[in-house]
Amino acid sequence: MSQSPLIETINLTKHFDLGKQGGVRQVVHALDGISLQIAEQEILGLVGESGSGKSTYGKTLIGLHDKTAGEVRLRGETLPAHYHPRDFERHATSMQMIFQDPYSSLNPRMTVGEIIGEGLKLHTKASAAEVRDKVTGWLEQVGLQGEHAGRYPHEFSGGQRQRIGIARAMILEPEFVVCDEPISALDVSVQAQVINLLDDLKASMGLTMLFIAHDLSMVRYVSDRMAVMYLGMVVELGPANDVFFSPKHPYTEVLVASNPEPDPITERSRASTTISGEIPSPVNVGAGCRFASRCPKVMDICRSTTPELNPLKDDSIRQVACHLF
Ligand code: SF4
């Protein structure tokens, strides 16, 4: 990545302490030392199985979870671990999140207009009339109608609710948006509509995004680069097409192979490896490669030494954390 990053995390770490069991402290290693950069107007896709830490990364990055260690920088400025009320408004309007579940993320007791306009009321000095006008404008921009402002979330379909969630995030004109599995709770028939809407907004607003999903084909379509997470660590990073069509890390290989490609010609040209077993528990993980228990290419060193994410010798744009490279 040649441009200076809009947003970056340096060794971002999030552990959840579960207390002692049998005299041993149980610590969930949800994120361990994630260092990623996202350039202005770039979409970074983040993929991995459930339990890999993708959503925790998005939430910790944006400040919805306190971090255990590490830094988040926006335009080179380190964001505080806990926001002072004076700083909160500045950062709340810079970074927003679109949530996975459009059913639980909208307050059922608030009208759609109140939901979409709430951020403007809280974080800006906009008058009631300005808030109303902007809400109407954003309802129309996401494909709904101004008169929908007076209705309640239960009166809308899943796809429409996700459009309301998108309008709520975008009305503050953020520089950076985390999209956390924004289509996985939706019917297949409306998924493409929501992706097209995000694509249009990215083009018209010059947005920078972290796009979290488990559907690799979708992430390849949407993203400029793709990062692959496994058990709280990034194991591969590179241009989205390169990672998808020529995966290097054994985990990415099996992840790609288990993700059907809609085009039968490209589907035939891909690897046919399959993944076995479930992602191990993230509690008290020890040294060594975290994929070792499932890796078809495991070696002795893998069980004792944790591989670092390093550039490939012949393609420095790509990075892989594996002793094979
Ligand atoms: Fe497999 Fe070893 Fe590479 Fe881990 S480091 S992915 S166990 S070969």
What do these coordinates show?
The protein is an alpha/beta fold and 325 residues long. It has a domain at 5-94 and 174-247: Rossmann fold (3-Layer(aba) Sandwich), CATH 3.40.50. Helix content is 31%, strand content 25%. The chain has ten helices and twelve strands. It has helices at 54-62, 85-94, 112-123, 128-141, 158-170, 188-205, 216-222, 240-245, 250-257, 264-268, and strands spanning 5-21, 24-39, 43-47, 69-74, 77-78, 95-98, 176-180, 208-212, 225-230, 233-239, 310-312, 315-320. The strands form two sheets. An eight-stranded mixed β-sheet has the order 6-7-8-3-9-10-12-11, with helices on both faces. Strands 2-1-4-5 form a four-stranded antiparallel β-sheet, with helices on one face. β9 (225-230) and β10 form a beta hairpin. α5 (158-170) runs parallel beside α6 (188-205). The protein starts with a strand and ends in a 5-residue tail after the last strand. The mean pLDDT is 87. The structure holds iron/sulfur cluster. Residues 249-250, 289, 291-292, 295, 297-299, 302, 307, 322-324 line the site of iron/sulfur cluster.
